[in-house]
Design a protein that fits this description.
The complex is a heterodimer of chains A (about 550) and B (about 325). In chain A, about 30% of the residues lie in helices and about 20% in strands. Chain A has about 550 residues and is of the alpha+beta class. Chain A folds into 2 domains: about 290 residues, D-Maltodextrin-Binding Protein, domain 2 (3-Layer(aba) Sandwich), CATH 3.40.190; about 220 residues, Dipeptide-binding Protein, Domain 3 (Dipeptide-binding Protein, domain 3, Roll), CATH 3.10.105.10. In chain A, strands 1, 10, 11, 12, 13, 14, 15, 16, 17, 18 and 19 form an 11-stranded mixed beta sheet that branches. Chain A has a 4-stranded antiparallel beta sheet with strand order 4-5-9-8, covered by helices on one side. In chain A, a hairpin with a 3-residue loop joins strand 10 and strand 11. In chain A, helix 10 packs antiparallel against helix 12 and helix 15 packs antiparallel against helix 16. The radius of gyration of chain A is 27 Å and the shape is globular. The two termini of chain A are about 50 Å apart. With about 325 residues, chain B is mostly helical. Chain B contains 12 helices and 3 strands. In chain B, strands 1-3-2 form a 3-stranded antiparallel beta sheet.
Chain lengths: ~550, ~325
């Protein structure tokens, strides 16, 4: 009898245990292991200071801007501002913010995401004042935020304050009440809603920044309010995000479906090894040497999508012989871009006829404007060069020496070696290749650029202006070709304030024509692509903006 | 003896100061700066950044400020906020007054990572490198010394050729080849060990071996050559003549003297390995300090360049100091004076 009781008890106990484990099994946390933010440590998790893709990737998972960018359609969508209105003159933006979104912090002791409370024990909700503080802190010259320069020109008083001549009080950003934010721009342009949604215009937690300075944005003290919170940051090794249960979710920025995301900071081939060993669910930036093998071995996991960057060569328009547009056009038209993307890059990169990416708002595509874009044309190239030589009365051997310069990476090296060969065979022009260490190269390019130099640009916000007015306008810091064309300046200025998208596209097409074709101040070469591997059980969106929206991802 | 220590410590200080001056001048001499970007920053932003990190001060002031904060202890009282600029390696509470502390060694911010300081790199990354380097040195000695000894006492036999064959392999197979090879074969294909990462014992095996193997070759060759030389000496003949067993001749008499060249090399080797190794750390994804030696220079992160060079210089002079002491112990003819 006693034995039977024991058996019954044991069975009961066992079934309870199984039940308990069964439940915990069903609730097992979904953890995603990813490697898409490079091999070095993430520089800053501070919205006022962030400037690189890795930092911005983490910020966009932990914060939500006034507006957000749809990663597939590249259009502006509501963020924490559910709606906004624009004054008739297009200058005053009034944002209505979501209410009851608490600031959160991960508590290492309790192992949970917790709401941030003030000294009286009240929950701190994200308010318009946090945005006012955040925007002014970004613009504060003492913060020295690198990306203040993208925000400053678009808020009245912003450029003056950031440049040290104005004051914070004159910056035209104001909280009308706790949940209404008003920003006034000095100039109306179609992409303002885009700019105000960027990371440097996020709300920032004043109370912790006052206490800790730049040190706040680290494990244990990093406060945020978006779909994820920062759980752990093992510097130089990994960073872990955990779902923020207090983010209410909207139609555009939903609640996180995956409980934890572990970002591993690994070098290109090291992350491929981890992926192949089955320890990573997602990686990007695949080694070119492995692409052919990856295509065969992982056909269902390998994806290629457009990226946010463009690659090209600039000409120093002040140095002989490339101070003559005919020489520049000849060099540009002698580049067989298709051969480079097919034989060297191999991932499906797109040969570029314009420098600006075609998927930007108001950007022209080379398919729509084939006559304005530059393209491979060896006969025309020869003719252009001959016209120049005839005028000077010299032979091609007597051409002043031409130097090309870049920092040394395998990619840049193999591209210029191919192009050097094309120039030699098509034009008979011998170009000298020089490599410099990256920092030295940047310095040389800025101060005393050689005839030809490598050039690259990734957009900050997806509008054609970011690829034209901020780059090649004659007064731009980025204008390393030292190219001045008043007609170009007038076109991009007109496009900046034009509202009709079709008219804008037409204007930018004309401007790009001057840049890459008529004056050929630079030679576009190709548009980058993202190469990625994703495990088949991961549900994802295919982003084309260079960052992922992980809150939309799920594990099946 | 006492005099020797005092003199050596003063010399070490002088060497450190010279290293800091040369490093400081060289890094500011190189073109480019910490705020150079592929997308160049506008001038006013550059100015704000230079002001924030005091790079707009005259070079001499920058240097003196650096040395002052790094090496002169100071006493602070009152409220002390955890700001990056307040981060000192050593904080000792004083029994006097309210919140009085002696604070020492502030090596400045990391310009690249605003929320971190050079002290954070020392605290978080140096222990990792030290552990990896220590394991590598141990492996190097455990492989190298027996191989070298065996090769010397069995000179021109199969042991000699085999041992030296392994040594040549170690010298000619650089870490940049051996590392990824091991990672792929052992980590991916066989799945025996995790390909990358740091923390568990399994994760330590491959990188320690990779790093240790290259150095073991060096130690094996040195041990062999030095032992062969010592075995020809008169006192070894004497030891043999008085009828000692060969094993005792080697371990008691020959080994100690033969170790002198090995110890000479071990000093700088230990200093180099424990302060971090770039390639091994990158290949195996190890959060050590080695990559900062390289990335800080590429990024012109001035405080990090200074910090990493100084810590390496410190371990180098310190290791040489220890080597000198060990000499005296190995060979009684050498005196510390």
């Amino acid at each position: 009898m006693r034995n039977i009781t024991r058996v019954v008890l044991l069975v009961l106990l066992a079934s309870m245990l199984v039940g308990a484990f069964g439940i915990s099994g069903a609730q097992e946390a979904k953890v995603l292991y990813v490697a898409n933010i490079g091999q070095d440590d993430i520089p800053h998790l501070d919205p006022g200071l962030a400037e690189d893709v890795a930092s911005i990737q983490i910020l966009e998972a932990t914060y939500v801007g006034l507006t957000t960018l749809n990663e597939v359609t590249v259009t502006v969508e509501p963020g924490i501002a559910t709606e906004w209105s624009v004054s008739d003159d297009g200058l005053v933006y009034t944002f209505s913010l979501m209410q009851n979104v608490p600031w959160v912090v991960y508590n290492t002791d309790s192992g949970a995401v917790e709401e941030v409370k003030d000294a009286d024990g009240n929950v701190r909700y994200v308010t318009a004042n946090d945005f006012v503080y955040g925007i002014k802190r970004t613009l504060d010259p003492n913060t020295a935020g690198p990306y203040a320069y993208v925000l400053a020109p678009w808020i009245v008083g912003g450029a003056e304050y950031n440049g040290g001549s104005g004051s914070a009080d004159d910056v035209a950003v104001a909280a009308l009440d706790d949940y209404t934010l008003q920003i006034t721009a000095p100039k109306a342009t179609p992409f303002l809603a885009n700019i105000y949604g960027m990371w440097m215009a996020l709300a920032q937690p004043q109370w912790v920044i006052d206490e800790m300075g730049d040190a706040w944005a680290d494990e244990g003290t990093f406060q945020s309010y978006g779909p994820y919170a920062l759980k752990e940051w093992a510097h130089d090794e990994s960073l872990t995000l955990i779902k923020n249960p207090f983010w209410p979710g909207t139609d555009y920025v939903g609640q996180a479906k995956i409980d934890e995301i572990v970002f591993l900071l690994l070098e290109q081939s090291a992350k491929l090894a981890e992926y192949e060993a089955g320890n990573l669910d997602f990686m990007d930036d695949l080694p070119t040497a492995d692409l052919d093998r990856i295509r065969v071995e992982y056909p269902n996991e390998f994806t290629v999508s457009p990226s946010s960057c463009s690659y090209g060569y600039g000409f120093n328009t002040e140095k002989e012989p490339v101070n003559d547009a005919r020489v520049r056009r000849a060099l540009s038209m002698a580049i067989d871009r298709q051969a480079i993307t097919d034989n060297i890059l191999k991932a499906g990169q797109i040969p570029a006829g314009f420098y600006m990416l075609p998927n930007l708002t108001a950007a022209p595509s080379q398919e729509d404007y084939p006559d304005l874009a530059i393209k491979y044309d060896p006969e025309a190239a020869k003719a252009e060069l001959q016209a120049y030589l005839d005028e000077k009365g010299i032979s091609v051997d007597e051409l002043p020496p031409i130097t090309y310069m870049t920092n040394e990476t395998d990619l840049h090296k193999s591209i210029i070696e191919a192009i050097q060969n094309m120039w030699r065979e098509t034009l008979g022009v011998e170009v000298q290749i020089t490599f410099q260490e990256f920092g030295v190269f940047l310095d040389t390019r800025k101060n005393d650029a050689p005839q030809i130099f490598r050039y690259g640009w990734c957009y900050d916000y997806p509008d054609a202006h970011n690829f034209s007015g901020e780059l090649f306008r004659s007064d731009s810091t980025q204008n390393d070709p030292n190219w001045v064309n008043p007609e170009y300046d007038a076109l991009v200025d007109q496009a900046l304030t034009e509202n009709d998208p079709d008219v804008r596209r037409e204007l930018y097409a004309q401007a790009e024509y001057l840049l890459v074709n008529q004056d050929a101040a630079m030679a576009p070469i190709y548009y980058y692509v993202e190469t990625q591997l994703t495990k088949p059980n991961v549900e994802r969106t295919l982003s084309v903006i260079g960052r992922e929206r992980f809150e939309k991802w799920d594990i099946k | 003896m006492y005099q020797f220590f005092v003199r050596r410590i003063l010399w070490m200080g002088l060497v450190m100061v010279m290293v800091s001056i040369i490093t400081f001048l060289l890094m500011h001499q190189v073109p480019g700066g910490p705020f150079d970007r592929e997308k160049a920053l506008p001038e006013r932003i550059q100015k704000n950044l230079e002001k924030k990190y005091h790079l707009d001060d005259p070079l001499l002031k920058q240097y003196l400020d650096y040395m002052y904060y790094a090496f002169i202890p100071r006493v602070t009282t009152g409220e002390w906020k955890p700001l990056p600029e307040n981060d000192h390696l050593i904080n000792l509470k004083l029994p006097i007054g309210d919140n009085a502390y002696i604070r020492w060694m502030n090596f400045g911010p990391s310009i690249k990572s605003a929320s971190r300081t050079v002290n954070d790199i020392f605290r978080d990354n140096f222990p990792v490198s030290a552990k990896l380097g220590g394991a590598a040195v141990a492996i190097a000695c455990l492989i190298g010394m027996p191989l070298g000894t065996l090769a010397a006492i069995r000179k021109n036999t199969i042991f000699d050729y085999l041992g030296m064959g392994i040594a040549v392999l170690g010298v000619s197979l650089p870490i940049v080849t051996l590392g990824p090879l091991l990672r792929y074969i052992v980590g991916v294909e066989l799945g025996l060990l995790p390909p990358t990462g740091w923390g568990t014992l399994e994760q330590m095996i491959m990188p320690s071996f990779t790093l240790g193997f290259a150095s073991s070759a060096l130690i094996a060759r040195l041990t062999r050559a030095s032992l062969l030389q010592v075995l020809d000496e008169d006192y070894i003949r004497t030891a043999r003549a008085k009828g000692l067993r060969e094993q005792l001749v080697i371990t008691r008499h020959a080994m100690k003297n033969a170790m002198i060249p090995v110890v000479t090399v071990l000093g700088p080797l230990i200093a180099a390995l424990i302060t971090g190794t770039f390639v091994t750390e990158i290949v195996f994804g190890i959060p050590g300090m080695g990559k900062y030696f390289v990335t800080s220079i590429g990024g012109r992160d001035y405080p990090v360049i200074m910090g990493t060079i100084l810590i390496y210089a410190f371990f180098l002079v310190f290791a040489n100091f220890i080597v000198d002491i060990v000499y005296a112990w190995l060979d009684p003819r050498i005196r510390l004076s």
